[in-house]
Amino acid sequence: MIRTEDATDATDLTDVTDVADVNDETFEAEVLGSALPVLVQFTADWCGPCRQLAPVLREIARQEAGRIRVVQLDVDRNPGVTVRFGVMATPTLMVFRAGEPVTSMVGTRPKRKLLQELEDVLAAA
Q: N or C: which end of the chain has fewer CB within 10 A?
């Protein structure tokens, strides 16, 4: 039996459970001031690969809830943070720990590969 996800869940970036939205005004407090490491997806409404990555990030947010926080930032609506961290493509994934970026990845990837890439961050949490 093949289980398919409801198309609205997979494509609607505004309804990604467990993945909070941040913006230019809240980024400092929500990301840089977080006690946990924070995985930020720099995304856009028009970005197909970003929509593909949304269910993966939702799963990681749930699975690793006590070790890493997952948020998303719309690059079109929040140019300040986007320019500040040199984001040139979507999706860009950036991990922040203690207010500093510690790793950056561009493009979509399966959950297993993303968790492998986050291993060092998760081990330190």
A: N
